[in-house]
Every structure is written in C-alpha cells, then in structure tokens.
Design goal:
Distance between the termini: 14 Å
Shape: globular
Number of helices: 13
Number of strands: 0
Structural class: mainly alpha
Strand content: under 5%
Radius of gyration: 18 Å
Length: 288
C-alpha cells in the first residue's frame, strides 16, 4: 500500500508541476498559485462539510497551518524557476527536497533494510538524472538554481509536516483544507503586496479572460496537488517514511514524460538513464 500511494503521489505531482509550469508562462506565478489553490479550497470545503471532518479539529492542525505557510513559497519559487528554465536545472534539483522527509523518517526510527537503502540511493540518483542536469552557470540559470533549491526545501518540509497533520481519512480532509486556506491567505497577501509594488496580477493582452479560459487547467493543478499531498500522507502513515518519500519524489520522471508526450520534447540520454535508474530503485524499494 505504501508503494502504491507513493507512486500515485509521484504521478499527481509530476502532472501538477508540468501544468503549473506551462500556466506560469502565460500568467504571473502568484496568480497561478492563488487561483489554483482557491479552487482546491472550494472543493475541499465541500468535502469537509459532507464528511463532517470539522469534528476532528485538534492541535495537530498546526502542522497543516505550517505546511500552508511554506507551500506557497515553495510553489512560487518552483513556478518562477520553471519559467526561467531550463527544465534540466529545475526538475532534478526540485526533487532534492526528498532529503527532508527521509531525514525525518530516519530520526523517528525508520530503519530500511539493505535492499531498501540501496533502492533509496539508486532512486535518488535516477531522480536527479531524469531531469537532465545542465548547470552551465549563466546568470539566469544561477537564479533558477537558487529558486529551485528554495522550492526543494519547501516541498520536503511540506511533505514532513502534512504527514503529521492527521491520523484518519476525515482528519486528512480537514488538514488539507486548512493547509489550502493558509496557502490562499499567504499567496493572496503576497499577490497584494506585489501589485502594490507595481507587479501584475493578470496576464498581459487578455487579463481576466485569460484566467477564465485557463480555469480548467488551474483547477487541475490545484486539485492534483491536493490529491498528491493526501496520497503521500497515507503512504507515510502506512509504511516507512523513507520509502514513501523517495517513491513520491519520482515525479520528475513524470514531468519529463509529460513534456515528451505533450510538448514533443526529446528525452536526452542522461534523462533516459535516470528514468531507468529510478525504476530500478523503485523495484528495490518495493521488494526490500
């Protein structure tokens, strides 16, 4: 079950990041974050009401609040980095956030077997290579690296925090709702400050029409990200956090494959090798 939910997380995150990266090329990154998370708030709010999840409110929700504060910073940094490119920098470095939940898992007592340790190492190398690293030191690329490392630490922290925010399925719905409400509050505040300083909230050459036209895509990004947080939380609670975190962070492989299928980007040799190593690591983790 751990492997199944963790791999579902990788699929959802990979597709959400691909969609978010495309949207950020058409509209401001903060607008993408706020709009996509607002859709998630509406849907999760309905789920919380329908399931009576509000009755499970407790101190553990502060983990969800913390994840909600860190999440927009990570998403904004990641989307900006994707817009700057190249994907060969952003995608693999973004996955290095796996170090945070893996470290937490080891600290709380996870002790993977020998094969699983080998799988963790092989999978992490494969994840990095799957993005096709291209560090050549151009000024914009250095900025992309910095933003991506901020995003990586943020994503890893969100993974560790959301796994502690609930212990039941309905509690998870409430935790995800609280996280997204906090996301919108923090992201909305940042957007307000950006506009006050002369930034744009709406895309050029279309304004609100562009946002409305992109609403289905924004909804997909927001809901896929929510679902990924949910499946990861379940994976982390049903098995070793170290295994769940590494498998969930296979999402760069999904992003690369989505770019290949939708944008017709050609996979480089290093990306193909990375995808292969990630698959080998997955097998070792699942069988170890």
């Amino acid at each position: 079950m751990t492997a199944l939910f963790a791999l579902a997380t990788a699929l959802l995150w990979g597709l959400a990041d691909f969609g978010g990266g495309l949207l950020t090329r058409r509209m401001p990154a903060l607008t993408v974050v706020v709009a996509s998370q607002t859709v998630a708030v509406v849907v999760l709010g309905a789920v919380v009401i329908a399931t009576g999840a509000w009755t499970e409110a407790g101190p553990q929700l502060w983990y969800a609040v913390a994840a909600g504060v860190v999440g927009p910073v990570a998403m904004l940094s990641f989307y900006k980095a994707l817009a700057l490119g190249p994907m060969g920098v952003v995608s693999p470095l973004g996955s290095l956030g796996v170090v945070v939940p893996v470290s937490v898992g080891l600290l709380i007592g996870d002790r993977p077997g020998l094969l699983q340790f080998a799988g963790i190492g092989v999978a992490i190398v494969g994840i990095v290579l799957a993005g096709g690293p291209e560090l050549r030191g151009a000024p914009v690329q250095r900025q992309a690296v910095l933003l991506t490392l901020v995003a990586a630490f943020g994503f890893g922290s969100v993974m560790a925090l959301i796994a502690e925010a609930s212990s039941t399925l309905t509690g998870l719905f409430l935790a995800l709702f609280v996280q997204r409400v906090t996301n919108v509050a923090v992201g909305g505040g940042a957007l307000y400050v950006s506009v006050k300083r002369g930034g744009r909230a709406l895309p050029e050459g279309g304004g609100t029409k562009v946002v409305w036209a992109a609403l289905p895509a924004l909804a997909f990004v927001g809901l896929a990200d929510v679902a990924a947080n949910g499946t990861y939380s379940i994976a982390a609670q049903t098995g070793p956090v170290t295994v769940a975190a590494v498998l969930a962070n296979l999402y760069p492989v999904v992003t690369a494959l989505a770019a290949r299928g939708v944008l017709k980007e050609r996979l480089r040799a290093v990306q193909a090798a990375g995808a292969g190593l990630a698959l080998v690591g997955t097998v070792l983790l699942a069988t170890g």
